[in-house]
């Protein structure tokens, strides 16, 4: 994706994932599968990531997207899905900014 490309934020991340995979991109999909407390996105929220680090959607309203994108790039590289957990009881909570008191589980898988 070029720097001048602007995605329509109202578009469904799953539609974007389909376009990207149909266009030959390597793509990972991150899906919120469990929340607790004040997690900012509901179960079923999606973030789609391509091998260049471009992404669309949200799994946390910005709290953990950077960490999820990093893991997704590894998933694209090795093809192995990952279950990620973030929350205040986890030592990564303060590093990724999920200090609002919630917890989320995100499943990341390679598409295509």
TrEMBL record:
It holds the Pfam family XdhC_CoxI. This is XdhC/CoxI family protein. Residues 20-87 form the XdhC- CoxI domain. It comes from Kumtagia ephedrae.
């Amino acid at each position: 994706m070029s720097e001048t490309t602007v995605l329509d934020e109202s578009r469904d991340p799953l539609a974007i994932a389909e376009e990207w995979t149909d266009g030959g991109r390597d793509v990972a999909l991150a899906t919120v599968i469990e929340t607790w407390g004040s997690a900012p996105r509901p179960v079923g929220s999606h973030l789609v990531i391509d091998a260049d680090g471009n992404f669309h959607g949200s799994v946390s309203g910005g709290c953990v997207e950077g960490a999820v994108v990093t893991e997704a790039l590894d998933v694209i590289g090795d093809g192995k899905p990952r279950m990620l957990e973030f929350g205040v009881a986890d030592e990564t909570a303060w590093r990724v900014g999920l200090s609002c008191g919630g917890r989320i589980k995100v499943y990341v898988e390679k598409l295509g």
